[in-house]
Amino acid sequence: MTSTTQPLAGKVALITGASKGIGAATALELASLGARVAINYSSDAKPAEELVAKIGSADKAIAIKANAGDVKELERLVQETVAWSGGKIDILIPNAGIALMRNVEQTTEEDFQRTYDLNVKGPYFLVQKALPYLPKGAHVVLLSTSLCASSTITPNYLLYVTSKGAVEQMTRVLAKDLGTKGINVNAIAPGPMATDLFFQGKSQELVDTIASGNPFKRLGQPSEIAKAIAYLSGEGGSWVNGQILRVNGGMTVGN
Length: 255
Known about the structure:
By secondary structure, the protein is α/β, with parallel strands linked by helices. Helices cover about 40% and strands about 15% of the residues.
């Protein structure tokens, strides 16, 4: 029986792209609720190792380097996680992603391949490789974007949003499939977030304009997304399946 302060005690979470931004905030949130966390990173070990140290002992968190867009690397990531965890993954969060701003005329085949490898192929095959280790009651939480429901979207988001549209369809159909095994599948779709990735290449004027378009007149914080992910990863999400939760302060409403 879990306590009210540690509702995820005994649970094991694997998060890709977890050394920074939303992934790091989610690792900290789930660890604070009692989960053991496998923190995947792609190249820079320092932030991942610092995050592990912040969470605590080697039994509570581990950093694993792997390319989240490569199937063989994903298989190794899963195997290293279950070797560390004792053979299971209760919470799977394919968070790693890339946001190349390209309209149809600007998109190269290389751009398309990079985006779909990390944003679509990665989550798809991470679920496949982890499935033998997901027990009944496990949760898969994918990452989309509220831009999939925005009517004011600009053409340069085409490549990014088409990949996230694939993730939303993946969520809906996987929920029907894995639900028969007692596994919940949902997606979080954030709005604009105060992360290094979001600020990159944007002027302060542009950032302020984007923030002003939200009813709350601000950007979201990674910790706010992390709490929503935690909700779907625990008992609160037990009867939530196949849903896209748009966590954006009212930037979009409805579907």
